[in-house]
Amino acid sequence: MQLMAYTADHHAKLDVSEAIPEGCTLTWIEDASHLSSNLAWKQTRILILVASDWPMPDIDSLMDNFAPRHVILVDLTPEAHWHGIQQNQQVRKHLHWCELEGLTDLIIQLTQMTSFDPGSRLALLSPRNDCDGALLAIATASQLQRKHKQSVLLLDLGRPYSDVSSYLGSGDRIDFLTLLEKKDYLSAQWLEEQDLDAAAGIHVIGMPDADNYSAVTLEALVDVMDLLEGVYSNIVINLTGMPPSPLLFFMVNRCDQHWLLADQKNVSLKSACDLAELLYLQGIRPGSVNLVLAPFSPEVMPGKEMIQNQLPVLVRGDLPYTFAVITDINANALFPPSGEFRLYIKAVEKLLWLPTEKSRWQFSLGW
């Protein structure tokens, strides 16, 4: 994973370089100007700024130009003059202050994959719609419900169609645009009265087939998502097929886990990596942006290790071939899970709760 660092104190370079964890690549900035056209600057996930004095105009300028991506400020001033600067401006909301001794741990926190916790929210993304986001969303919600013993909201905004309700044979009780239109009348009690349980503790809110985003406002989105997040601890948002848009970026910023779906085709992998770059530019935590591989055919498996060696995105894992699950989908018989869908759910379980052994991080620059 690509990191860049800047300091005017050359004596600090060795200490910073030694603090970089395995799997990360560090490039030093020698000239703080004219970086906007620098390819390494564009591909950098985290910027490390080492401040030995205060004020330092170069550091202020670098922070502003790198925002909203994550910045680590290592404060070497005797009285920690830079401490608290992260509360001063909204543009610096992804600014992390630390001392030199805490640099390694902070980098790991920002770059490592994490397992789901009882309050996690997941976005499933695939701009090309190469993978079955509806099936993965259902399996994920099912596992979260089984693990935490509470209802899980599956917000199905997949394009061009919201298929989750059809897969479950439940029909749409209410759609997301209706929630936005009724935002002034919504309450947790009203939501609980809508009978959203589609299957096994999975509550589904879909999207109407006819898109009409003209009436959607940021205020309405914030109000509705605040309500939903107050009712549900776990939320799975299916955004597969949705191109980069203000709605997509709003949703991913409400999530702490982001899975990019792709098969083994080069064009599919490249599309996922391009979307990952857009997420990094939104200030999404680099370690939360993970690639999930699905086989295009049973004869050509994803090749996880080979793909990880070639891509600058963390590969979270792979899924089994799902052709045999189609019969269960057509018969609305996914639950209780059996046969191939049971195996699929087991694979999703591994994606949700990562193995306890230390992951082998393999990153490379470029595509």
Describe, in plain words, how this protein is organized in 3D:
The chain has 367 residues and is α/β, with parallel strands linked by helices. It contains 14 helices and 13 strands. The chain has an 8-stranded mixed sheet with strand order 8-9-7-10-6-11-12-13, sandwiched between helices. Strand 3 (46-51), helix 3 (57-66) and strand 4 (70-75) form a beta-alpha-beta unit. It is globular and about 65 Å long. The relative contact order is 0.14.
Question: Which regions contain 5 or more consecutive residues with pLDDT less than 50?
Answer: 357-367
Topology order in helix (H) and strand (E) letters: EHEHEHEEHEHEHHHEEHEHEHEHEHH
The strands making up the biggest β-sheet line up spatially as 8-9-7-10-6-11-12-13
Helix content: 25-40%
SS-derived structural category: alpha/beta
Oligomer: single chain
Helix count equals 14
Rg calc: 22 Å
Task: Give a short account of the largest sheet.
Answer: 8 strands, mixed
- The number of E-state strands comes to 13
Report how far the terminal alpha carbons are from each other: 13 Å
Mean pLDDT across every amino acid position = 87
Q: What portion of residues belong to β-strands? A: 15-25%
**Overall outline:** globular
